Amino acid sequence: MTLERVAPAVAAAVAAVKEDRLWRRHLQIAEIGATGRGGVNRQALTPEDAEARRRVLGWAAARGFEASVDPIGNLFIRRAGRSPTARPIVSGSHLDTQPTGGNFDGVFGVLAALEVLEAVDDAGVETVHPLELAIWTNEEGARFQPTTMGSAVFAGALALAAALATVDAHGVGVEQALAQTLKAAPVVNRRAFRFPMTAYLEAHIEQGPVLEAAGKTIGVVSGIQGLRWFRVEVTGEEAHAGTTPRARRRDALLAAVDMVRALRDLMLDATDTARFTVGRFEVRPNSPNTVPGQVLFTIDFRHPDGTVLSRLGDEVAAVCRAHAGGCAVDVIETLNSPPTEFDPRICELIQAAAARQGLPHMRIVSGATHDAKYMAGLCPTGMIFVPCERGISHNEGERASAADLAAGARLLAEVMLRLN
Amino acid sequence: MTLERVAPAVAAAVAAVKEDRLWRRHLQIAEIGATGRGGVNRQALTPEDAEARRRVLGWAAARGFEASVDPIGNLFIRRAGRSPTARPIVSGSHLDTQPTGGNFDGVFGVLAALEVLEAVDDAGVETVHPLELAIWTNEEGARFQPTTMGSAVFAGALALAAALATVDAHGVGVEQALAQTLKAAPVVNRRAFRFPMTAYLEAHIEQGPVLEAAGKTIGVVSGIQGLRWFRVEVTGEEAHAGTTPRARRRDALLAAVDMVRALRDLMLDATDTARFTVGRFEVRPNSPNTVPGQVLFTIDFRHPDGTVLSRLGDEVAAVCRAHAGGCAVDVIETLNSPPTEFDPRICELIQAAAARQGLPHMRIVSGATHDAKYMAGLCPTGMIFVPCERGISHNEGERASAADLAAGARLLAEVMLRLN
Fold first, then answer.
1. CA distance A381 to A265
2. How far apart are CA A295 and CA A234, in angstroms?
3. Which string of DSSP letters, residue by residue, matches A154-196?
4. Of A1, A112, A341, B6, which has the most beta carbons under 10 Å away?
5. What mean pLDDT is predicted for residues A388-416?
6. Which residues pair with A340 in a beta bridge?
7. How is residue B247 annotated by DSSP?
8. Quick check: A340 contacting B, CB < 8 Å?
9. Same domain (yes/no): A110, A214
10. Same domain, A238 and A179
11. Burial B342-352 (b: 16+ CB within 10 A, else e)
């Protein structure tokens, strides 16, 4: 199907995207697990997660869209195409949240895809390929680790048995919580892991301040930056703060402070591309008049360029050792996730559609991870970002505008149709 | 009484100091509150403290030494002199310990003074002035704050009513705990606060590594260094570690790290005299993938020179503000205790006696505070330090040698007699 032939159908579907319907549904889902402080607590496979799934399944059923579920609880909601054998064009995200989460992270990607399916339906457009909404299980990893569990199991990066055996802080396992969720939000049809897709798209709030600061409505996401986590343990010797001369001290805190400074200098780049964070920093015995004997700190280092991620990440241990003073230091790498590059053709398609729709847009690298990371290994994949206020996310104060969300859904509609 | 005339009596009393008696009594007191891991938990005004007082009172009573008690529970044990009106020469320390304390901190000063009284008695020496052992209440400040409570109240630096109203973590007050202690270790005679003394001397383990490192048996303590405490609160903004560019961050941890480095540089001296410790350092939310929004840290800064203590201490707030980056910073001074200088004549006396006894000695400034600090405001005061292994104190691994303890007691005996 050429671009010329689909253009009127695309225009009709885009015009059928309803800002007020999309916004109302955000408000309705925000009621499920509402904390009373503007945010939600709707962690994976809780009764609240089940209720949100039931609500979306209800909207889909009212349209006659068929739902199916895979063994880790990922949901797929299909608007059928002309060809029953054509690979679906899939878009989605997640309904679970952080314990003090916002109303847009994940939810927007789910409701935007549903909005596209309904808008295409309202416009009476017939597609060759089925259009599908995917709802991934446990993206947040707040209750059950790791994050992006559903998409990782779907893609084969995490064994189903391992995921099912994961327990939460109260000893409840994924297997039991999943069974309860699927009982409360039942789906009859089964779907296999790694079923073939034409493409996967995910709409999401940026969760960062870049689009807002640049005055752009759309981020054309070129990929997800790579991430390495380190845990640094510095061991000195506890000593009396009043009686121990400097020359006799092995002060774990001063050593750790030197390490953090040197690591910050290592990661310093003119383009402000590297992300370097020491988020956790704990001192023992943590008493005002005792020289610290132990410090534990974590390093979260991210970069979109795999070469840079490797080179600088590989220097972390040596930099820590070089600034250990008289202390012992252990550097343990706890996570190493290389960058993900999305399909250039999908990026081009998104960018061209944004230009045609007159939406201010820019290329952007995702700082956070998403289910799209695992889909990128299976089929042509891309993401669409819309701004969120001051970049605040994973926070009850998360905000996005109805107009930006609708713009993202209109763009998604055009891209999904142009993939036909 | 001239030096020539007392010399034979001094020699006799010094010769009567018994290393084995002194050591055995350390072992006996160490049984009271023994933790089973080599240390003791004998906090102030507990049944264990009462039992230790009862034991020392028993040894004194067996000699016919008279005991008295003041309203905060400080004990005074007197070997009478020839003149009933002469001001006593007093020496002592404390019997209370840290929750995981050692067997020498405080106890040595008590038992050394008792040993002197007994040795003088054994030698049949008659003094003009009474010789007294003082046992100060709650030096450690572990159960009831502040530290050196008994000597502070004695000296009038802390009101008796305020001390009696102090409660421990379980809500038990000093008044009640003191009454129970005095019931379990009763003393009939009353003593007034601030009664006149000829001089006050205190023997103590160094609690630092200087004497051991220098190969000296005796530290002639010239004073107690001054101490200033600060509490620094740094407020930035929590942000997503993956999505927030460096330029948009207000990272409270990186700001605090810069402050600590700059403060360390400020306090750096060629003579290694200043003591600078950041002992407490707490981060919020302390999550690996969140840019820290808040850091609280403490500064413990000590110096024997009051001018330097004032000058550098007064720069702390400005240095913190200069390194705050985009963060807000509050610097609160929580303690300011100027240096104490002991009486130069007492120091000379101690040094001359150490030289005569052939004891390797050196001048030293006390890094920790002691009851002698308050006595120094009332009468000529001095302290004698003996080494402790690797400077370890406030620790169940605290160690001192029987020979060093006896050497300290012999020196104390000579000094107390020469003050007659």
1. 35
2. 5
3. HHTSS-HHHHHH-B-TTS-BHHHHHHHHHHHS---EE--TT--
4. A112
5. 95
6. A224
7. G
8. no
9. yes
10. no
11. bbeebbebbbe
Same domain for A33 and A149?
A: yes
Residue B207 sits in the same domain as residue B65: yes
Domain region containing B190 = 3-224+339-418
Note whether B285 and B356 are same-domain residues.
no
Alpha-carbon gap: A283 to the closest alpha carbon of chain B (Å): 6
Which amino acid belongs to residue A370?
A: H
A99 & A7 share domain: yes
Give dist(CA B177, CA B167) in Å, integer: 9
pLDDT at B4 over 70: no
What's the pLDDT tens digit per position in B143-161? 998 889 999 999 999 999 9
Residues of B in contact with A288 (CB under 8 A): 229, 277, 279-280, 298, 300
List the structure tokens of A288.
């005002």
Residues 290-319 of A with CB under 8 A from B: 290-292, 298, 300, 302
pTM for this predicted structure: 0.82
CB of B391 within 8 Å of a chain A CB? The answer is: yes
Substitution target in B243, B340, B370 with the highest count of A β-carbons within 10 Å is B243
Distance separating alpha carbons of residues B407 and B419, to the nearest angstrom:
19
Residues 266-285 of B with CB under 8 A from A: 272, 274-283
Residue A331's CATH number = 3.30.70.360
Of B209, B229, B257, the CB nearest to A261: B257
Interface test with B, best of A277, A282, A362 (most B CBs within 10 A): A277
Domain boundary pick from A337, A363, A387: A337
List chain A residues with CB under 8 Å of B279.
241, 253, 283, 286-292
Cis previous bond, B285, omega within 30: yes
Give the count of alpha carbons within 13 A of A85, CB side only: 0
Contact B278 A254 (CB under 8 A): yes
Q: Give the residue with greater pLDDT, B133 vs B290.
A: B133
- Among B337, B368, B384, the domain boundary falls at B337
d(CA B357, CA B198) in angstroms, rounded, equals: 24
pLDDT digits (tens, 9 = 90+) for A292-332: 999 999 999 999 999 999 999 999 999 999 999 999 999 99
- In chain A, the number of structural domains is 2
pLDDT tens-digit map of B255-290: 999 999 999 999 999 999 999 999 999 999 888 888
Same domain, B266 and B360: no
Residues B199 and B60 in one domain: yes
Distance CA(B364)–CA(B352), nearest Å, equals 15
Confidence of residue A6 (pLDDT cuts 50, 70, 90): low
Cβ neighbours for B237, distance < 8 A, ≥ 6 positions apart: B249, B250, B291, B293
How many Cα neighbours within 13 Å face the side chain of A339? 22
Cα radius of gyration (chain A) = 24
CB contact under 8 A, A260 and B264: no
- Token pair, residue A7, equals 């253009």
The whole-number average pLDDT for the span A359-371 is 96
For residue A364, give the chain B residue with the closest CA.
B243
Tokens 């040197």 map to which residue? A262
CA distance B278 to chain A (A): 7
Q: Is the pLDDT of residue B5 over 70?
A: no
Q: Let me know the angle formed at the C-alpha of B361 by B358 and B364, rounded to the nearest 5 degrees.
A: 160
Question: Strands, E, within A253-410: which ranges?
Answer: 275-277, 281-284, 290-291, 294-303, 328-337, 340-341, 361-366, 381-386
Nearest to B292 among A248, A251, A279 (CB): A279
Q: Classify residue A87 by its DSSP letter.
A: P
Per-residue tokens: A109: 């990607």
Beta carbons of A290 and B279 less than 8 Å apart: yes
Is this prediction's ipTM beyond 0.90? no
**CATH number for the domain including A63?**
3.40.630.10
